[in-house]
């Protein structure tokens, strides 16, 4: 799939496009190579040569998340959770891709994902995060936030705690009508949720009531949240703003506001660079990828024209942040690779697990700064691959961990790629 | 209107009793509402009791959980088929269409297997039978589709046609497979009581090599009749078969075949096989003796198996157009007097007769879903086989069936997204259907609204875009989420609604003395120009900011501009003028002179306000709390 020497040329700066953009940020319009050769054949059993395994699951998938690996683990992840939306009967399901019985010669596990267990969920699953190895926090369109526990011995799921009406509209007529909880992020034991009601909640997994609630934190809908540091979170909203909130401050005001000037294009997703906390990526309604440096300025460092419709999720690779993944309503999933110099590719690429990332920390630092924050499009090289050849319906979610990618679509299918960097 | 050639089937609605009350109904897009009226059966009053409303769904298969993967996966194939370019060479295009057809079939097969698994694991017997029925329906669909693929999509010529039909029979007559397996796995197959049955099955299906393999085992066990076996084996080996490539012409093949046929005839007549009835009957089958073949009726199980066997041994070079005669007579001979053809038989017969429209029509009547006919018709249309046919209503058959199928999808709470692409590929009415259906999608979250909105925006459906945004804006307004409401109306470019919301903001300001949702108002940007009131709101807030930053002269200039631009609502004039008062007292601001340019009635008002200034309590009620406290 990838040749020895990348044939993807340096991205030229599209200076002509700048005239249309009122912001001073250089805007680039990369277009991905479509994946050549490796396009998988449907209905073939997942064999050793297959890159992607698919399974139709009879429910539209809104979220998919790998179960985190134990700290010292070296093997690739093998269990993930999915949530569905827009069904009369929505479900949280746990899947396994590591069928131990049929392990291949090189320890590669094959076969399509197998359902381990599932449980009903009230309302659409809007967001979902693993709190630890066993617990999953799920945000619902009804406004409740539920912690599910996956009992690995009996392979069952149960709801262990629920905050009803964590998000709600308090209008003059009714006491409290549920408002969709749109985003959740965990940093065990802390859980932060945001919602259509513009509220930010800080929960602790073991406490019944919210530790901190910021009502009307945002006048528009908050679409996503992520941790910046232990006490700070980042939120994105439907008028194109990125806000930093510091829970140490008692004021119910954001510590900092960044915005896409002028256009007010809603932002749908946000992720922070795993090693360099000041680098933040967001995805917008127009499919644009924005990279921000929250140490300076109030505007994004670079804007990259990407998808043709809403970008639903953006993820830096947790242990290999030269790689970034985005998925969109237009049915595409892009792999952004800034580590174009093949000879310098760090060795930890081949192994999953966060622990191995420390080996080449210093080398990452140098290469990444120039890659994601570079303002000079002629200097940086970025290889972009569209991982889905025949796109139709929206790819709502993706998750990457180690060498594994999972994504879910509105075409009611989940896909697993276990050789991301092969 | 066309005459109906069959009586429409009666649908019994469980719970509705026409003998008790009269029923009335209302058509919906893909379902029908049925309700009990106040009238009894003869026009009198109906017996007392609660009356019910029933929802009658036309396409009930849409609601089968296991069929959802059929709908989803075939959707991808459908979209791929519509996208593929027309300009390809004829041969390449044909190969591509065959591949598409095979993909559809493999989806049906995969779904069938899942359904089969579900049937096995179902503990509930009702559920089990429901799944089993679905399995048989799916397998019938695949059978029909496969035949259509051979006859219409691939349009196999004489020669290869027979080979395809043999494959078709081998693939679908799988009842006998168990018998074969049982015999082959026994210790001594030639002693098994079903041994000859299995040999016959192989011969009937044209699986010569397998038949010969079995016979050789029997021959070893019977050294005395070795010669007889050898001759039969030789005959079976020599049987000419049509070649797939162009290595031999049809005439060549017919000559060879004639020669072989005569050889068989000779052996039969000189009584070579007289000592074994089994082998004699096989030889008769090889000669295409209809009675000998019919004797094996229960091994063939269906008339179309009989048809293919008969063709194999009597007319191997049958031309497509001759099929109809053999098919009809085979069915008559096989079914005999006692049984009448079932819907599946009629459909297959129509296919053998190359009556495409009849096939589609019979399938529409017999099957409980639109999926099959819609996709098959679309494929056949891409093969350019349906072009002459126009309906007396709607546009053409392809579009009609796709519209029906997609409407069914839209009535489903979750599958509606698939329907969009089907409507897109209906050139005549697709858009209208989509417009009518998309407005009826319930919008319970903003995310779903965004997805629906994206569908509308991609298709320039401005009316629907406005309506969706308005719904969302109203919802937000009802929930007191002014910021969200304003965002939605800005997205829809709905000036009237933006004005309404701006008024709410101004009212809130008057009541509370401070602005809510500053993060939004401060960031309106160019969208501020959507409505005058919104512009006023944004600029008035800017005035506050300037004032707060003590940039009084700029603030005064802006305030003056707001007064002179005639965009302030009348009710807000008082507040504006109150705001002006402190500025009048600033030395560096030459406001008074500028104010004199205002026309007289407003100046009158201004003086009135100046009088108010002496009584601060009134002033604070007028709205300038924030400002006055700032000043003092």
TrEMBL record, chain A:
Region Disordered: list its residue ranges: 19-44
Query: Which cellular components does GO assign to this protein?
Result: nuclear pore outer ring
Provide the residue intervals of the WD repeats: 260-302, 304-340
Pfam families, per the entry: WD40
Q: Which SUPFAM superfamilies match?
A: WD40 repeat-like
This protein's UniProt keywords: Nucleus, Repeat, WD repeat
- Where it mainly occurs, coarsely classed, is nucleus
- What is the annotated localization of this protein? Nucleus
Is the keyword Repeat assigned to this protein?
yes
Q: Which InterPro entries match?
A: WD40/YVTN_repeat-like_dom_sf, WD40_repeat_CS, WD40_repeat_dom_sf, WD40_rpt
Q: Where is the composition biased (Low complexity)?
A: 19-36
Presence of the UniProt keyword Nucleus in the record: yes
Note the PANTHER family from the entry: NUCLEOPORIN NUP43 (PTHR22652)
Recorded protein name is Nucleoporin 43
UniProtKB/TrEMBL annotation, chain B:
Q: Which species does this protein come from?
A: Pavo cristatus
Tell me a GO biological process for this protein: mRNA export from nucleus
Oligomer and partners: Component of the nuclear pore complex (NPC).
Upper classification of the source organism reads: Eukaryota, Metazoa, Chordata, Craniata, Vertebrata
Entry superkingdom: Eukaryota
Which of UniProt's keywords are assigned here?
A: Membrane, mRNA transport, Nuclear pore complex, Nucleus, Protein transport, Translocation, Transport
Classify the main location: nucleus
Location in the cell: Nucleus, Nuclear pore complex
The record describes the protein's role as: Functions as a component of the nuclear pore complex (NPC).
UniProt-listed Pfam families: Nucleopor_Nup85 (PF07575)
Q: Which GO terms describe its cellular component?
A: nuclear membrane; nuclear pore outer ring
Q: State the protein's name.
A: Nuclear pore complex protein Nup85
For molecular function, the Gene Ontology terms on record are: structural constituent of nuclear pore
Q: Which family does it belong to?
A: Belongs to the nucleoporin Nup85 family.
């Amino acid at each position: 799939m990838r040749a020895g020497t990348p044939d993807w040329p340096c991205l030229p700066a599209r200076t002509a496009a700048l005239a249309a953009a009122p912001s001073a940020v250089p805007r680039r319009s990369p277009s991905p190579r479509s994946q050549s050769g490796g396009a998988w054949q449907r209905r073939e059993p997942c064999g050793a040569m297959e890159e992607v395994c698919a399974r139709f699951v009879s429910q539209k998938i809104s979220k998919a998340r790998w179960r985190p690996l134990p700290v010292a683990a070296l093997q690739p992840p093998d269990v993930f959770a999915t949530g569905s939306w827009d069904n009369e009967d929505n479900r949280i399901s746990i899947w396994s891709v590591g069928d131990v019985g049929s392990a291949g010669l090189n320890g590669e596990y094959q076969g399509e994902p197998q359902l381990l267990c599932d449980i009903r969920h009230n309302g659409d699953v809007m967001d979902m995060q693993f709190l630890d190895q066993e617990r999953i926090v799920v945000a619902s369109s009804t406004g409740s936030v539920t912690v599910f526990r996956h009992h690995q011995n009996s392979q069952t799921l149960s709801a262990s705690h629920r905050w009803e009406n964590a998000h709600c509209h308090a209008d003059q007529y009714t006491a409290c009508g549920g408002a969709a909880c749109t985003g959740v992020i965990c940093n065990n034991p802390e859980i932060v949720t945001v919602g259509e009601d513009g509220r930010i909640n800080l929960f602790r997994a073991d406490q019944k009531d919210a530790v901190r609630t910021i009502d009307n934190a945002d006048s528009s809908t908050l679409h996503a949240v992520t941790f910046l540091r232990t006490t700070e979170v980042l939120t994105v909203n439907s008028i194109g703003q990125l806000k930093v909130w510091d829970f140490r401050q008692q004021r119910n005001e954001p510590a900092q506001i960044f915005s896409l000037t002028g256009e007010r294009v809603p932002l749908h997703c946000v992720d922070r660079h795993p090693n360099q906390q000041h680098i933040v990526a967001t995805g917008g309604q127009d499919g644009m990828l924005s990279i921000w440096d929250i140490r300076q300025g109030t505007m994004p460092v670079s804007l990259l024209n990407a998808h043709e419709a809403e970008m639903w999720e953006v993820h830096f690779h947790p242990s290999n942040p030269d790689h970034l993944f985005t998925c969109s309503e237009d049915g595409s999933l892009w792999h952004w690779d800034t580590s174009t110099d093949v000879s310098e590719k760090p060795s930890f690429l081949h192994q999953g697990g966060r622990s191995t990332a420390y080996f080449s920390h210093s080398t990452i630092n140098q290469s990444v700064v120039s890659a994601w924050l570079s303002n000079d499009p002629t200097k940086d090289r970025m290889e972009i691959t569209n991982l889905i050849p025949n796109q139709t319906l929206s790819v709502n979610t993706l998750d990457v961990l180690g060498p594994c990618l999972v994504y879910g679509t509105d075409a009611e299918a989940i896909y697993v790629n276990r050789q991301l960097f092969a | 209107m066309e005459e109906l050639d069959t009586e429409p089937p009666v649908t019994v609605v469980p719970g509705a009793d026409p003998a008790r009350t009269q029923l009335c109904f209302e058509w919906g897009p893909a379902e029908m509402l049925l309700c009990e009226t106040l009238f009894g059966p003869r026009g009198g009053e109906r017996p007392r009791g609660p009356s019910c409303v029933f929802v009658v769904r036309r396409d009930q298969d849409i609601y089968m959980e296991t069929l959802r993967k059929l709908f989803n996966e075939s959707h991808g194939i459908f979209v791929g088929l519509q996208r593929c370019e027309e300009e390809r060479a004829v041969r390449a295009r044909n190969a591509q269409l065959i591949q598409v057809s095979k993909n559809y079939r493999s989806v049906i097969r995969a779904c069938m297997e899942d359904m089969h698994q579900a049937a096995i694991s179902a503990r509930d017997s009702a559920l089990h039978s429901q799944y089993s029925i679905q399995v048989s329906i799916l397998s019938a669909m695949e059978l029909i589709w496969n035949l259509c693929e051979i006859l219409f999509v691939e349009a196999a010529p004489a020669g290869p046609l027979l080979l395809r039909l043999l494959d078709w029979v081998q693939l679908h007559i799988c009842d006998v497979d168990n018998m074969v397996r049982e015999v082959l796995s026994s210790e001594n197959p030639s002693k098994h009581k079903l041994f000859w049955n299995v040999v016959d099955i192989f011969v009937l299906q044209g699986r010569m090599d397998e038949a010969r393999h079995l016979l050789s085992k029997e021959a070893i066990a019977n050294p005395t009749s070795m010669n007889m076996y050898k001759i039969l084996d030789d005959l079976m080996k020599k049987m000419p078969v049509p070649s797939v490539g162009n290595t031999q012409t049809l005439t060549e093949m017919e000559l060879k075949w004639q020669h072989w046929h005569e050889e068989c005839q000779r052996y039969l007549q000189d009584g070579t096989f007289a000592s074994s009835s089994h082998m004699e009957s096989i030889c008769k089958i090889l000669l295409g003796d209809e009675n000998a073949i019919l004797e094996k009726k229960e091994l063939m199980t269906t008339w179309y198996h009989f048809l293919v066997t008969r063709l194999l041994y009597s007319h191997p070079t049958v031309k497509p157009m001759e099929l109809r005669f053999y098919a009809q007579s085979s069915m008559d001979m096989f079914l005999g007097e006692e049984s009448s053809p079932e819907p599946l038989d009629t459909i297959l017969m129509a296919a053998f007769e190359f009556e495409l429209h009849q096939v589609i029509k019979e399938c529409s009547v017999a099957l409980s879903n639109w999926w099959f006919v819609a996709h098959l018709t679309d494929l056949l249309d891409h093969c350019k086989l349906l072009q002459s046919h126009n309906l007396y209503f709607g546009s053409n058959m392809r579009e009609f069936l796709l519209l029906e199928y997609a409407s069914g999808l839209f009535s489903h709470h979750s599958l509606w997204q698939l329907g969009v692409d089907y409507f897109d590929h209906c050139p005549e009415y697709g858009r209208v259907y989509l417009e009518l259906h998309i407005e009826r999608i319930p919008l319970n979250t903003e995310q779903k609204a965004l997805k629906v909105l994206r569908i509308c925006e991609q298709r320039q459906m401005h009316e629907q875009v406005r309506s969706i945004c308005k719904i969302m804006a109203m919802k937000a307004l009802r929930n007191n989420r002014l910021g969200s409401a304003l965002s939605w109306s800005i997205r829809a470019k709905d000036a009237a609604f933006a004005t309404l919301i701006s008024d709410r903001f101004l009212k809130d300001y008057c009541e509370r003395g401070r602005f809510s949702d500053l993060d939004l108002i401060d960031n309106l940007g160019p969208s501020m120009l959507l409505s005058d009131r919104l512009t006023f709101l944004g600029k008035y807030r800017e005035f506050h900011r300037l004032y707060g930053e003590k940039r009084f002269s700029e603030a005064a200039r802006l305030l003056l501009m707001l007064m002179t631009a005639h965009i302030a609502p009348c009710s807000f004039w008082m507040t504006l003028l109150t705001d002006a008062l402190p500025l009048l007292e600033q030395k560096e601001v030459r406001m008074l002179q500028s104010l004199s340019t205002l026309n007289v009635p407003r100046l009158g008002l201004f003086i009135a306000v100046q009088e108010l200034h002496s009584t601060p309590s009134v002033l604070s009620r007028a709205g300038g709390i924030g400002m006055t406290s700032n000043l003092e």
